[in-house]
Design a protein that fits this description.
Length: about 230
């Protein structure tokens, strides 16, 4: 399992590192690292450039997580692996299945989250991982993701705080996983995603507690940079 897991994590990191938020904003003459919250995530792009570019960035960032978690399905479900069948308990044909594939896919998603938030193409700057998590969880935990989406929607429309909605949705993932008796690898993934999102929103949490967090509203588009 170690080699497939390592490969999945490395490929996931490279896929996650593609800075779509920066590229979409730059195509419109804006350096997203210099405007708004200076974050290349979909929320800041939407706030600065509008719904079209923002939704495009969210979709592309979610696609990174989706690809990172799902490519291993194509790569490994039909791959014969040189395991000692007696000690590893793998199926007689050596094909990775079930929990084994989950672990490889989880490694790919974790790599994508790290790449998205600490991209090697933007001096290790990046987004907060929400959209990329959504894409990967669509493959691995669709029911928990659907419930988290409901939590996000209710929280956002009640408060207009994107950060608070994202935090509550993230926290809901391990709770739903426990209630649904998800396999241990998926429960661990849910906890990791929740912790990662919380850590990436540290400054937002401080502003929420201080009452200084900005509610979502679109800002005027800045003039293009030369």
């Amino acid at each position: 399992m170690l080699l497939p897991l390592l490969i999945a994590a490395i490929v996931g990191y490279l896929v996650g590192s593609v800075p779509f938020g920066y590229l979409v904003a730059r195509s419109r003459g804006v350096n997203i690292f210099e405007v708004g919250s200076k974050n290349p995530g979909a929320t800041n792009v939407r706030r600065v450039l509008g719904a079209g570019p923002g939704n495009l960035v969210f979709t592309l960032d979610a696609l990174k997580g989706f690809l990172a978690a799902s490519w291993s399905l194509l790569a490994y479900t039909q791959a014969s692996v040189a395991y000692d069948l007696e000690t590893e308990g793998i199926a007689a044909d050596g094909i990775i299945r079930g929990t084994d594939w989950n672990i490889v896919a989880i490694g790919g998603l974790v790599g994508a989250l790290l790449g998205h938030s600490f991209s090697c193409f933007t001096k290790f700057r990046g987004g907060k991982g929400v959209a990329t998590s959504v894409g990967g969880l669509l493959i691995l935990m669709p029911v928990a993701l659907a419930i988290g989406a409901v939590v996000w929607g209710v929280s956002f429309y009640a408060t207009r705080y994107v950060s608070l909605a994202s935090l509550l949705a993230a926290v809901s993932l391990p709770i739903v996983s426990i209630v649904m008796h998800q396999p241990k690898p998926l429960l661990i993934l849910a906890i990791l995603v929740a912790v990662f999102v919380i850590l990436r929103h540290r400054s937002n949490i401080v502003r929420l507690l201080n009452g200084t967090e900005n509610k979502f509203s679109r800002q005027p588009v800045p003039p293009p940079h030369a």
